[in-house]
Known about the structure:
- The protein is mainly α.
- It has one domain: Hypothetical protein af1432.
- It has helices at about 1-20, 30-40, 45-55, 55-60, 65-70, 75-85, 90-100, 105-115, 125-150.
- α2 (about 30-40) packs antiparallel against α3 (about 45-55), α2 packs across α8 (about 105-115) and α8 (about 105-115) runs antiparallel to α9.
Amino acid sequence: MRNQQKLLAKAISLAAQGHEIQLDRGGQPYICHCMTVMHKVKSSDPIVKQIAIMHDLVEGTDTTISDLIEMGFDTRVTDALHLLTHVKGVSYQTYIDGIATCKDAMLVKLADLRHNSDLTRLKGITEKDFERMQKYQKAYVQLKEALEKF
Length: 150
């Protein structure tokens, strides 16, 4: 367990470095979103917290799954991060269906969707934002139901 706590500290540091100059849609430092997801995830398991803080790391930075394996992260972490990385060319529904196969990934994505659905984070709301919220709501319901069956 102590090693997982050390890896959590490493994950926080990696996420902070990887997202250091990125901003979210509301103009806030992107790392704040990652921190919120980590705090809101419904698990005290340090492995799930590692996944949460790094949930956008592979998709949004130059860090790869291979890098994380070399750094000593558990396969639970790397497997979940693989599922949480939305690859270009893969439909959103296929992406969500993949997440629905892994409890750790579902816990993190549910926290991510809750935070991403908070319209108060945006500077202004457009029709595109409402469409995205509908997509997120559908994904949230699907993952919540899948998690209950897990």
